[in-house]
Design a protein that fits this description.
The structure is a homodimer.
Chain A: E1 3-9, E2 22-28, E3 37-45, H1 49-53, E4 74-81, E5 91-94, E6 101-104, E7 110-112, H2 128-141, E8 148-152, H3 159-168, E9 172-177, H4 180-188, E10 194-197, H5 203-210, E11 215-220, H6 224-231, E12 234-242, H7 246-249, H8 260-265, E13 269-272, H9 279-295, E14 302-306, H10 311-319, E15 326-330
Parallel strand pairs in A: 8-9, 8-11, 9-10, 11-12, 12-13, 14-15
Antiparallel strand pairs in A: 1-2, 3-4, 3-6, 3-15, 4-5, 5-7
Helix pairs in contact in A: 2-3, 2-9, 5-6
């Protein structure tokens, strides 16, 4: 009998997550009961939000308990079906977690095809991160042609899509990223007009130089000092989509934002949002992104780690910003 | 010939404003040229925003230069008119500054009557602070019946109107104020369901007790630690109207807001706003407030200081929270 391999939560981390916070376990292969299907997972997504699920702090979704399989987006192939809506051989994207095989009722699965874009992209540019970028930028920031859009984590899974969508809106687009490799990628491959390396210091001054007309839309993935610097260059009536605060997720002592006065004086609208609150917009975003990716209008880069056993290391590396573009784990 | 008395800016203060930052000067009485009118001011408003105008920091409105008359809202009587739209004896509300007599083209003046409400209220509950309360609460916070509305500076010129308008919307209304006198006034006179004294310590815990169902709308006048505590009790999809940050205005080292994560996790919408951006809504708000004040549906309290020469002391006292309700200066 085939054995299933799963990665479960071993500890609720304090500060940075470590490999010892995860545990690899073997279990019997599940069998599909009536109505269920059995999926062989081919791709696993690792994303910043997972750090929140590893914590006991109250959040918008329940956390993972010790011993539970880690939550996560997956692409897999149906290998057994007791559900009339799915056939063996169908590829599906869903949230079946950090495991090689998963049972599902099929309820939260979407059938996908690799005819136009590769399967892995349904975890990135054509998946949750892409939809996050689209909804945050187009629905919350509502950029107009000629405006300046600033994007933190500019080369990441979400930011890279935000920047390119903002260029399609005919905006001036400025990124913030860590290190020259990411900044060069943002400008040369993704088409950003400029990208500021926050590791080079004097971020607020550098932003003022790169955004001579100020910032009308700010897409925030990072928080902390990066956010403070960005708030200092906002224009009157600017909009901030607060999508993530990755700089805070591993912090036991959160950074204090000093620039709230800019929010008042500039009549800024800051909106925190979670992509899964907007399922109608989510589907609309994906339907738009798939052809754009197929046509090359939206580019993407993946950092691929091989093997479920390496998923914890891939997650930790991504949290430290070592990936370029979308971090995925290839399971098969 | 009558002498005019004016108060001009003597210094741009660092930190708290002091009486020495103001200077009283005497000047010749102005004369109305064609199209102008001459106003004898009866009431002067002192408000927190004036601290920003005394500063050289960039803001939404130009600052007062050294030697210039301090800006401010006034109620006065027309004593000379070369303008067909105004007659001698008309009472007007406008922004003619810290002086006994002022010339005006009439452009930004509104004629008022004391038939229904006293003249001084056009600087408070029926003026800029009242309109600020109305627009911030009704347009930005959009409270629904049964929701919890939290108001900082709950007994102040703006907050006292916010709280009462929220009660008219059938909300549970909780205030934050400094000291038991203000808290008692908020509950007993203004009708707040509860009021928390931030000077008593443990503000976040006290707010959790006073807001057992969390907070859906937060009307922010204060900033700093008060804002951090308030952000910690926000509900999912709550709205924050950022109207003022009085705790920051005299600070040379702004407090850092640590609770941005609550804005993300709870998908909060924070909106900075300035009442004068919304002149259509401003007029609508005043038209609604005047009859409500006349009928006693909206109550108010004024702290009255006598004499223009005491305006700096009144302003400083108000900035330190020593007033109850609206601080005004009686000039005549």
């Amino acid at each position: 009998m085939t054995t299933n391999i799963q990665i479960v939560l071993a500890n609720h981390p304090e500060g940075w997550a470590q490999e010892s916070d995860f545990k690899l376990i073997e279990s019997d292969m599940p069998a599909a009961a009536s109505g269920d299907l059995l999926i062989e997972n081919h791709w696993l997504s690792v994303d910043p939000y997972m750090r929140g699920r590893m914590s006991t702090a109250k959040s918008y979704a329940p956390g993972v308990e010790i011993g539970e399989v880690m939550v996560g987006g997956t692409v897999g192939r149906v290998i057994e079906s007791q559900n009339p809506n799915f056939n063996v051989g169908d590829f599906v994207v869903g949230r079946t977690g950090w495991q090689l095989y998963a049972l599902s009722t099929g309820e939260e699965l979407t059938k996908i095809s690799s005819d136009t874009v590769p399967y892995s992209t349904y975890l990135g540019v054509c998946g949750m991160p892409g939809a996050t970028a689209s909804i945050g930028l187009l629905e919350h920031c509502t950029p107009k042609a000629g405006e300046t859009v600033l994007v933190s984590a500019a080369s990441g899974a979400v930011g890279s899509v935000v920047g390119q969508l903002a260029k399609l809106q005919e905006c001036r687009v400025v990124g913030i990223a860590g290190g020259s490799r990411k900044c060069n990628y943002a400008v040369e491959e993704l088409g950003y007009d400029a990208c500021v390396d926050y590791k080079a210091g004097n971020l607020a001054d550098a932003l003022r130089k790169s955004c001579p007309e100020g910032v009308d839309c700010y897409f925030e993935n990072v928080g902390g000092e990066v956010m403070d610097a960005a708030l200092s260059v906002l224009n009157p009536f600017s909009r901030v989509a607060l999508c993530g605060l990755i700089s805070e997720y591993n912090s036991t002592d959160p950074y204090g934002i000093k620039m709230m006065k800019s929010v008042l004086v500039n009549r800024v609208n800051i909106r925190g949002f979670i992509v899964t609150d907007h399922l109608d917009l989510y589907r609309k975003a994906i339907d738009q992104l798939v052809p754009w990716v197929a046509e090359g209008k939206i580019k993407y880069h993946e950092t691929v780690t091989e093997g479920l056993e390496n998923a914890p290391a891939a997650f930790i590396s991504m949290m430290k910003g070592k990936n370029l573009g979308k971090q995925v784990v290839k399971l098969k």
